[in-house]
Amino acid sequence: MTQASALQRTYPWTTNLDGLQVTFRLMGTADRDAVLAFARALPEDDLMFLRTDVTQPQVVDEWIGNIQAERTITVMAETEGKLAGYASIHRNEVLWTRHVGEIRVQVGRDYRGIGLGKRLTNEVFAIAKELGLKKITAQMTTDQRSARQVFEHLGFRPEALLADYAMS
Description:
The protein is an alpha+beta fold and 168 residues long. The chain is 30% helix and 24% strand. It has helices at residues 32-40, 44-48, 57-68, 116-130, 145-153, and strands at residues 13-17, 20-26, 72-79, 82-91, 100-107, 135-137. Strands 1-2-3-4-5-6 form a six-stranded mixed sheet, with helices on both faces. Helix 4 links the parallel strand 5 and strand 6.
């Protein structure tokens, strides 16, 4: 049984967000081109703060490899036949940090302000809990107020403020 199939959550499922029908489903191998198209349409400011350059095919291939190796679970949100955003929970294979996961969330510019980021974050947070992760992290800049509010609502608290860590 795979990690994704062991989840209590069922995919795909569809809901209405601000008048848009949004379908949530798990990312798979066939999503490579959709992810690349989505990433290449992101504003430069968004790309600057991503942990990896998801506009590059080899990076997306590695991401898919991590999904197949069950180190990552990614929930995709689609509307009108295209990717609107995604959220991932990334796990570390190192024995002493196997209880830690990192959440990463990205919402396309046209889909911000409708609660999609919050819904995606809640979804992968629930998955992380189902997986038994004991510590869940997320990284963001201090000016990402909306994102910080979503995470704080889930019980996250800042553990580190790294001065001069991010630069443009």
